[in-house]
Design a protein that fits this description.
heterodimer, A: alpha/beta, six-stranded mixed beta sheet, 6 strands, globular, B: alpha/beta, five-stranded antiparallel beta sheet, 19 helices, about 15% strand, disordered N terminus
Chain lengths: ~210, ~575
């Protein structure tokens, strides 16, 4: 089975839960008292996607302002960026928009952008509506999900959707625009269709239209 | 297997393994298995060279060490070094400074090749110096060095790392350094024989740490072609090797002489036009006798500010057995009394070939504008290998790539060193007691002492002529070698290994012996004595991390418990308490 290494970076304001998302994805654990990241943390996880193994090389960057200027080193050469905001902090959503701008200007040309509205378990304190975020994501053709690293909601989905959007190796067989021409669901390995993690709302379960829901 | 095993999991299914708790790890524990610290040295108008920043902040360097690092991190006369310059130095650790927390018996040193041991009393400094015009600074120039301080002789790895991080640092300053140090603190510790992924600043460097069990001269790491479309890792072919051909290009015809001078640990000064040339040449020379360890002090870049300057340049004593790399022309006078001085010029081509320096009389070493050359009265013991030189020179004409030329040169030097050392190894092995003479009930027999004459007598039938075509006075070379620090270092190392091997054999036969049968007719005193002796052996074996078969120590532990169990209860209580 072919192995592909995919560099993925996480960007976003400090405290939105970037490291928690990575820990949930890689180790399936959650620590409410996680320390702020200094510089960046690096982790890997290999998953099967169709007939390929995707090894995610994950660069979890620091959200603190003093590390802001270092970001280009981490998104340079990235296949995908997960930009995270906190649904309970309007400000973090504004920061996200700045990241999108920066990526458009200085990031790799074909970078897949995923937007993760984290802490969706705290809907009582919500400041960013799902619709606003979703509309924004659609306007920039980004993947969008609301996630909860704490309750393990939609974490794997982010990475699965990234896998789907990464241009295939054999470009003759599949299109380069991952979203529109994503491979047919019938060919999908069972694990993609049997995800059991709960989802917050039907909205976030929406997949590219040609993938059948389970 | 990915060495990032703690952070590597497979598949979307929930992993059973709990998270490795980074919080319980000592801060900087992983960082310190690679680096002591990272320093930024700057030029301060009032203070001169000064350390601007040290990372981690709590690292303990003495004032003397700091001063040395400051001076050695700038080129001696930096007018000629506009732009970026990379070089390396080595300093002695201050007396009384706490030793590294890595003991001599640490697992790394046990499995690493002799030439790549972690330094016990010295630090290497790997420098990236930048000097550019800058109107905003009073002196008109921006002058700063980023320095990695380490006990590991990994020149290629650390210089490659600097190439990645230094330009970013000069632009983004302290947060960048903070990030890099934290990333290095996530690296797996250097483990001989393993290929490691070292993530830093968005790049994954991949490098294999050599092991002492590697086949000498074996090709280090075959790149398996895999479908690595996006970020191909930055693969370094070696942690420590330099481009030998580039380093030796103007002295190719003297390679035999230089190898002998290194083998014998002769006092040698390399005068070079820049710290880069000086440090690379010294490190290349030191590596030329690999796998033999060069046991003398070596300073890839040495200046008058060095704390050993007086000691090493004293005219009242014979020059010490060291190799020093210098750039300051002032040193020509200082080292006039040294037996061997290699003066290198700017690398020049004469036609297709790099200009070769000539051997010159020491008396000619006078004026500051002394010409490039090997200033020595030394006559080689062995004849030079003309075929090798022809091959290399032909390679230049045919534009053979430098890496290939280096590989040819390295192989030649390796074979030469092996030819020299194999007879010694063979003789040394004959000094080991026979395996059958190791019995459980007696201390193992002694290793016989090394006798030079006895060794010389073996040369007729088992000398270097078996593996080398080089003619000359091999016997004379061995005699001279016996007086050198390199022989001493080699012999001590081998002796320690042999003693440990003997200890292992002893522990293994003890484990196979029927202890309970033996103690049947022994008095309590003898049995208690046995228990104490076995315990001591066990502790020593653990401390020295003896290369024992897996279950030997556990077996021994169980034996001790069984033997204790055979004693009366009051004695049992006493023995269990201690």
């Amino acid at each position: 089975m072919a192995l592909r290494e995919l560099k993925v970076c996480l960007l976003g304001d400090t405290g939105v839960g970037k490291s928690s998302i990575v820990w949930r994805f890689v180790e399936d654990s959650f620590d409410p008292n996680i320390n702020p990241t200094i510089g960046a943390s690096f982790m890997t996880k290999t998953v099967q996607y169709q007939n390929e193994l995707h090894k995610f090389l994950i660069w979890d960057t620091a959200g603190q302002e003093r590390f802001r200027a270092l970001a280009p080193m981490y998104y340079r050469g990235s296949a995908a960026a997960i930009i995270v905001y906190d649904i309970t902090k309007e400000e973090s959503f504004q920061t996200l928009k700045n990241w999108v701008k920066e990526l458009r200007q200085h990031g790799p040309p074909n970078i897949v952008v995923a937007i993760a509205g984290n802490k969706c378990d705290l809907s009582d304190a919500r400041e960013v509506t799902e619709k606003d975020a979703k509309d924004y994501a659609d306007s920039i053709h980004a993947i969008f999900v609301e996630t909860s690293a704490k309750n393990a909601i939609n974490i794997n989905e982010v990475f699965i959707e990234i896998s789907q959007r990464i241009p295939a190796v054999d470009s003759g067989r599949r299109g380069r625009e991952g979203f529109q021409t994503a491979p047919a669901a019938v060919g999908d390995p069972p694990h993609l269709l049997l995800m059991t993690t709960p989802r917050v709302s039907p909205e976030t379960t929406r997949r590219p239209s040609n993938i059948q829901p389970e | 297997m990915d060495p990032f095993d703690s952070t590597e999991t497979l598949g979307y299914d929930k992993s059973e393994k709990g998270a490795e708790n980074i919080a319980t790890r000592l801060p900087w524990a992983r960082f310190s298995s690679w680096l002591e610290c990272v320093c930024v040295v700057t030029f301060d108008l009032e203070l001169g060279q000064a350390i601007e920043l040290v990372y981690p902040h709590d690292v303990k360097l003495t004032e003397k060490e700091k001063t040395s690092i400051c001076y050695l991190s700038f080129p001696d006369s930096y007018s000629g070094c506009l732009g970026d310059t990379q070089f390396s130095f080595r300093v002695r650790q201050s007396v009384g400074q706490k030793g590294s927390w890595f003991r001599e018996e640490d697992a790394y040193n046990r499995d690493a090749p002799g030439t790549l041991q972690r330094e016990q009393a010295h630090y290497y400094g790997y420098v990236y110096f930048r000097q550019v015009k800058d109107g905003s600074v009073k002196r008109g120039y921006f002058q700063k060095s980023l320095v990695l301080v380490s006990r590991l002789p990994y020149v290629n790895l650390f210089q490659s790392l600097l190439k990645l991080i230094a330009p970013e640092y000069f632009e983004k300053l302290e947060p960048c350094l903070e990030a890099v140090c934290n990333e290095i603190d996530q690296w797996p510790a250097p483990a001989p024989g393993q290929t490691l992924n070292l993530p830093v600043m968005g790049v994954v460097m991949q490098v294999r740490i050599p092991s002492k069990h590697d086949k000498p001269g074996g090709s280090p790491l075959k790149q398996t072609q895999k479908e690595n479309l996006l970020p191909a890792p930055l693969v370094l072919s070696t942690v420590h090797e330099l481009d030998l051909f580039k380093c030796f290009q103007s002295v190719l015809i003297h390679i035999q002489m230089l190898w002998e001078l290194m083998l014998l640990g002769e006092p040698l000064v390399v005068m070079a036009p820049s710290p880069t040339v000086s440090s690379e040449t010294v490190l290349a020379l030191v590596s030329s006798i690999s796998p033999l360890r060069y046991c003398c002090d070596h300073r890839p870049y040495f200046t008058i500010h060095d704390s050993e300057f007086k000691e090493y340049t004293s005219k009242t004593q014979a020059p010490p057995n060291v190799i020093l790399g210098v750039t300051n022309p002032f040193f020509i006078k200082t080292f006039q009394h040294w037996p061997h001085v290699l003066r290198l010029g700017e690398p020049k081509m004469s036609g297709d070939l790099p200009k070769q320096v000539k051997v010159k009389k020491l008396a000619k070493l006078k004026s500051l504008d002394t010409k490039p050359g090997v200033y020595t009265a030394y006559k080689t013991f062995l004849h030079k290998d003309k075929a090798l030189i022809k091959r290399l020179l032909k390679g230049i004409q045919r534009k053979r790539p430098s890496e290939v030329q280096s590989a040819i040169l390295r192989r030649h030097l390796l074979e030469l060193t092996q030819s020299f050392i194999i007879p010694l190894e063979r003789y040394l092995a004959s000094l080991m007691p026979l395996q059958k003479s190791v019995t459980p009930w007696k201390t193992p027999p002694q290793i016989r002492p090394f006798s030079q004459e006895e060794f010389m007598a073996t040369l007729d039938h088992a000398g270097p002529q078996l593996t080398s075509v080089l003619k000359g006075d091999w016997i004379g070379l061995y005699r001279r070698f016996f007086r050198s620090p390199n022989f001493d270092g080699w012999y001590r190392l081998r002796q320690r290994e042999m003693t440990q091997k003997l200890e292992c054999l002893h522990l293994e036969v003890i484990c196979e012996a029927d202890l309970l049968e033996w103690i049947k007719d022994k008095s309590e005193v003898e049995i208690v004595d046995l228990v104490l002796k076995l315990r001591e052996k066990l502790m020593k074996a653990r401390r020295q991390q003896l290369p024992l078969k897996d279950d030997v120590l556990e077996k021994l532990e169980r034996y001790i418990q069984t033997v204790i169990g055979s004693l009366p209860e009051d004695l049992q209580a006493v023995l269990r308490r201690h």
